[in-house]
Amino acid sequence: MNWYRFYPYGTGTITKADFLVDDKNKKIINESGFFNPGLKNSLKTRFAAYPDLMALVNSWKTDDDLLKILQLYDKK
Description:
76 residues; three-stranded antiparallel beta sheet; alpha+beta
């Protein structure tokens, strides 16, 4: 699973969109942004079978925390 962050250029405001992409089939799993739910909700749904990852998602504070969670998920 990969995570990408996009900052649109020239919108007049600083906004961002985050994307989770499934590496195996190259499909977007979740797109967060102004009208879409955040990555945390998507990850909670996806990691429901992994209590250890759920605990990490609940305590996630920084981008580095998210990277660590995704790396642990990829090892499973």
